[in-house]
Sequence to fold (762 residues):
Amino acid sequence: MRYLRLCLILPALAFHEADATASQLASRGYVVLPEPQNVALGAGDFRFGPAWSVQRKGVAANDIAVTSLAEGLKSRFHLPAPGGGAGAVQVTLAIAPGSVSIGEALDSDKAALAAQAYRLELAPGHVTITANEVSGLFYGVQTLLQLIAPHNDGWLRLPVGQIVDWPDLRLRQIYWDAAHHLDRPETLRDAIRQAAFYKINGFVIKLEGHFQYKSVPALVEPYVLTPAELQSLTDYALARHVQLVPYVDGPAHIAFILKHPEYAKLRAFPDSNYEGCATNPDFYKLLLGMFQDLLQANRGVQYFFLSTDEAYYVGLANNSQCDEATQAGKLGSVGRVLAEFLTKTANWLHDRGRTVVFWGEYPLQPGDIESLPRHLVNGETYGPRFDPLFAKHGIRSMIYTSTQGEERHFPEYVLLPADERLHPRRSGAVERVEGVARKIASDPARNSANVIGAINAGWADSGLHPETFWLGYAAGTAAAWKPAADAQESVNAFYRLFYGPHALDIERIYRLMSWQAQFWSDSWETGPSQARKPIWGNSNSIFNPKRPAQDQFLPLPQAPTAELGYSTKWSADNARRLQLAATYLSQNDELLGLLKDNLRRADFNRYNLEVFLSIARLCRHNLEMLADLGRMDTLLVSAASASGNGQPGQAVAAADQALAVAQGIRRRRNTVLREITATWYRNWYPRVQAANGRRFLHELDDVKDHPGDRTVDLSYQLLREVLLPFGEWVERIREARNRYAGAYDYPANNQAFDWKNLASVE
Fold:
């Protein structure tokens, strides 16, 4: 359901398209993300640097605004530390409470918004940033760092003028999914710094078993964040006015807990690891122990995400180890059982100083809202039947949106044209940044709920690398600062700020990456899985019996007969698939060229492009595999023709060529996996079965398909190929070839073909 929220709501929105006219800043060649609220530019520009000095008024020497300014000028523009001398530009940083007035904004807490406001005054030789509080000063510095632009005369330039700026919503959060991988602490630190640069002030992190819990040691995976590391990251974030917010699921989405034999007794249903028993005191004891472990390593943070996401079956259990149905009868609804769960857990967190954010969704019904604690914050808006009632009850809301949902490899930043697909696009699909911006700017709840923020999620269940999310995170969430901003202008600003002024054709890279990833999924068929366990249920019902999971597959040609007879319509039946693969292979050539070129050109975030390059090569392997299947089909036709014409030497040679093509497919697949692993593990801890004296229990979710969790290592990226009976088909080709060759005294082909071996590249 969480993946579909955006798709279901957006088509109904009455969204006023932003004026195509460029903003004042963009029309002058400057970019700031998010776009400021009030810009008044004068005539002309002036030089900034290389000499500069800083003056502080009411600002501590070690304030993050001061250090961030110096660090940013050094890292982005190679300017020396502040000094003075002739021609030095003086930067004045001032905190003066009440000095910056804010204008129109949705959030009703104007004091919270004013704390983040700033005024930036720009004149030759002088730059002044004034703010009411330290967070506003920090945001003013980020705007200055973004605004400085290289000029074609070789100097850095700033426009003459004034910017007065404040956010529309006090909370602008992104969700970082580390459930199925763990970023190294230095990577998370860089991500937090990156978020702060774009005025994102909430970094919601889902760790699952990637934290060193003291209370539940069975959950602790081979690689984790220690309490000291989490606290260090928390402190780093808080210094930059970012809340590092823990995210814990319950009562549903907790296969990472309930898969363990030690905790199977806490299941709502004994045969499902998806949902815990909301009437079992031991279940609460486990959760509260986890909460306490996290709180002790996350001191200083105000919020806690208690995800009640997709608790489909709460209130339904009636079995030997869990009776929720009786409690639902007493309370009057299954939604009241969920409300009781929230009351117990959220009140415990609230008593310890945390503001709890939850998902106020099914099975809650409008009549259940009054039973919820008023101190909660609803992490999503849920429509006209619900939103006004949450507001009336005193529960504040956030606008939920998503940079990614179920896509594989890369978010749908640009949709694949319908006439260049094999299969129909899913209903309601929207291009991600435009969709995120529209949702935040035009959600009907802006008029009916007490909206205090927005959260933009990048779900990693599909195994995407978080580097693919930054465009959506930065350009989409910018609408929570200024909802009237043009989404495309935000995208263009991101390209320049994230990669630097020397990068070229970044828009084309994102377009091609989007198309390549979509065709990777679209180029295969989907059907019942022969390899994964059945699914226990979905949002509508519990399945009895369980239903097959779905996997992707490719139709393979028939194998030849003993006489190398081969009659197939495979190439004809797959003509459209092969035609599109050839088209996208040509585009992949262009994409690889652009990525390699920008690896040399980009000023910043080159690792991001290396990740993109690894994904592009993965997509290329799929395209080349499709083409190679066509080649094998053609070679087998040639072998059959030669056999029929009494040309055994040519027949055997054609069959051998087909087998060599198969070997090439396997070799290339394994090489791609090796390259992805080498690239991704530079910023991730390895995904392994055992390390550091701990083991990872690999057991799939009984309800949800998480492709990123289908294997222990990164081979989930290529699992559909491993599951394809390609090895058996190749072996039948080899057997037919050898029988035929033996009849004509040709030597046997005994070259091994271990399709499931992902290690060898020989």
Notes: DSSP finds 22 helices and 23 strands in the chain. Residues 196 and 240 are 6 Å apart (CA to CA). The first strand starts at residue 38 and ends at 48.
